[in-house]
Amino acid sequence: MMVIVDSNVWSEAFRKKGKKSRFVSSLQRLIEKEEILIIGPIRQEVLSGIKEKVHFEKIKAALRAFPNQTIDDSIFELAASFFNLCRAKGIQGSHTDYLICACGVAWKVGIFTKDRDFSGYAKYLPIELIKTTV
Predict the structure, then answer these.
(1) Rounded alpha-carbon distances, angstroms, from residue 83 to 5, 90, 104
(2) Which domains are present in the chain?
(3) Under 8 Å between Cβ of 32 and 40
(4) pTM value?
(5) What are the φ and ψ backbone dihedral angles of 24, each rounded to 5 degrees?
(6) pLDDT (tens digit per residue) in 58-92
């Protein structure tokens, strides 16, 4: 099964030293099974805020192993409708989060994230959240 990996999992993987968390171990397993999908906004979030140019270039090169998936207008429209639905239910979220949800639904793939906000979205959106795989 293909999986969209959220930026918070990638960020942990790139900064973790020493013992791997269950999230990083699961990411490694997904990479080995070639089940990773990435979208441009996730790539941007992972790379944003990296102060050292050498470190930035290293992570940028590592992420290039995962080409961006094309997002057409209908997915952006779906993301906006998800935003509106959840907002009407009192649930706030970022535009990127709702875009991830829309991609997951449109492409029928899971979402692997550490962000607990997605559990709130899942109450109203038909998203599939992936638990750690290890």
Answers:
(1) 20, 10, 14
(2) 1-134 (3.40.50.1010)
(3) no
(4) 0.94
(5) -70, -40
(6) 999 999 999 999 999 999 999 999 999 999 999 99
